[in-house]
Design goal:
The chain is of the alpha/beta class and 487 residues long. It contains 21 helices and twelve strands.
Length: 487
């Protein structure tokens, strides 16, 4: 499945491991921050890194300061091979770290850099706001002069970015590196499931690239059977995961849920969101800003708009949250009464429009990462709209004065249909105001299947379908040492 044993489900993360190893192999003490949303694979990554290096791992809990100090001493004692170390009652974190560093077994016989990992560091902060100041002192007075690599990790992105990485944090300026772990890029989904390309796009549309979610899907079951069992089923992990995720991240989770529900229902402007939620405009603006900073939603303007453009649109970026608010949240009552099968049947026929919307999002990601139109160097990439006219993907290549205009269609197209879409795209291009006197226009189309691709390409159109996506995904994975074939 990958370079590791298939059973370990460790897919990709080569860049992350290279980052960690680079810091480990430096001649200096290192203080590294790892953060990212729940279930994205941070702990698996850290464990994989620790396999090859001396050190120990501690996961903080929400039980409070004394309990966490006691549990940290316990795992440290195991690393030191000293049962007495864990029996000592340490009055605080500083005394614990002093004892740890002074222990005769701390560096063992190898003398190599020792890795100290504190996972879910945000739990410590939630129970004690003084933790950042405490660890500032620990780093400044103890660790920065030792041959150590301190890694702190957290799943509350807002807490980590504010209380650990933020300018006002006591820890600001202490870190030697940081990495936000993101969901897996689309091609890696085929390393989990033996599906057709169409089904893989559908999988991405409901759970994205979150490894823990992908592992829940039964590779021997059909797509919609997995959706029923793992998502639209009382007691299943993904049935309540979105609400847990939001309540974990936000204190006022109810208001955030109201805003995300409004976005899912098609209210995409500030005024319409206020109307749908009944919340004050200034309050909604603040919440939208927070959601944007956490990359849960996208705050977008037409790609050609000036910096001060005010009629902005908002949309949910995360595929799992998109699906949860579109399908699960509105049908919670039926799901609670174990009518998941009926819910699935009722929404199944309407899912085409949902997959169409998500396909646009996926195509944007693929274009941004150079899967399609890789000969362009886009200075700006995004959607475009003006009055009743909309274009799914518009890219500006300012070096070559090239304008890319592309539509995304979740359907199989005959050559005639494809030509009709491309013709309409040409007509809309006259409304796009950007270097009209000297630009070169490139017209693109991405769909499930496009008949007559070769002929259309011969006429200068850039057209792609799922067959091209499959071939490009396999090539991408092979270049990174994977099989490139579905499991």
């Amino acid at each position: 499945m990958s370079q590791l044993n298939a059973g370990e489900n460790f897919v990709d993360r080569n860049d992350e491991l290279e980052f960690l190893n680079r810091h480990y192999n430096s001649e200096n003490p290192e203080f590294v921050i790892i953060y990212g949303r729940r279930r994205v694979g941070k702990t698996t990554l850290i464990f994989r890194f620790l396999q090859d290096n001396p050190g120990f791992y501690f996961m903080a809990s929400e039980e409070g300061r004394e309990s966490n100090i006691r549990d940290f001493a316990s795992v440290a004692g195991d690393y030191l091979n000293d049962p007495d170390f864990k029996r000592i009652n340490y009055p605080g974190w500083e005394s614990l770290f002093k004892s740890l560093l002074n222990h005769r077994n701390f560096y063992n016989s190898s003398g190599r850099k020792v890795v100290i990992i504190i996972d879910e560091f945000s739990y410590l902060i939630s129970k004690d706001s003084g933790v950042p100041s405490t660890f500032q002192k620990i780093w400044d007075l103890l660790l920065k002069n030792e041959n150590v690599m301190l890694i702190v990790s957290g799943s509350s992105v807002s807490t980590m970015e504010t209380e650990v990485l933020g300018y006002k944090s006591p820890l600001y300026g202490r870190r030697t590196g940081q990495w936000q772990v993101e969901p897996l890029f689309y091609p890696y989904i085929r390393e989990f499931l033996p599906y057709s390309e169409e089904e893989l796009v559908m999988v991405w549309s409901v759970v994205g690239g979150v490894p823990a979610y992908l592992q829940l899907f039964n590779s021997k079951a059909e797509f919609f059977d997995n959706v029923l069992q793992q998502m639209i089923n009382k007691g299943s992990y993904l049935y309540l995961e979105a609400e847990i995720l939001l309540r974990y991240e936000f204190r006022e989770a109810g208001n955030y849920i109201s805003i995300l529900r409004a976005l899912s229902s098609g209210y995409t402007t500030l005024s319409s969101i206020c109307q749908a939620t009944g919340l004050d405009k200034s309050m909604v603006s603040k919440y939208l800003s927070v959601l944007t900073n956490l990359h849960i939603i996208l705050d977008e303007a037409p790609v050609t708009a000036h910096a001060g453009f005010r009629k902005r649109h908002y949309r949910i970026l995360d595929p799992y949250l998109n699906f949860w608010f579109a399908v699960i949240y509105p049908h919670r009552m039926e799901i609670e009464t174990k009518k998941g099968s009926e819910v699935l049947m009722s929404v199944k026929n309407q899912m085409s429009s949902y997959f169409g919307k998500m396909f646009e999002n996926l195509c944007m990601d693929l274009v941004r990462c150079g899967f399609f139109f890789d000969d362009f160097s886009f200075s700006r990439l995004g959607r475009w709209w003006f009055k009743e006219n909309e274009i799914d993907i518009a890219g500006l290549d300012e070096k070559s004065d090239t304008l890319l205009l592309c539509e995304c269609k979740w359907m199989s197209l005959s050559e005639r249909q494809a030509r009709g879409i491309l013709k309409a795209l040409k007509e809309k291009s006259s409304h796009v105001k950007w270097r009209n006197d000297k630009r070169t226009e490139v017209y693109g189309l991405i769909a499930k299947e496009i008949s007559g691709k070769k002929k259309l390409r011969g006429e200068g159109y850039s057209v792609f379908d799922l067959e091209d996506l499959r071939e490009e995904s396999e090539r991408f994975l092979k270049e990174r040492g994977f099989s490139g074939k579905r499991v």
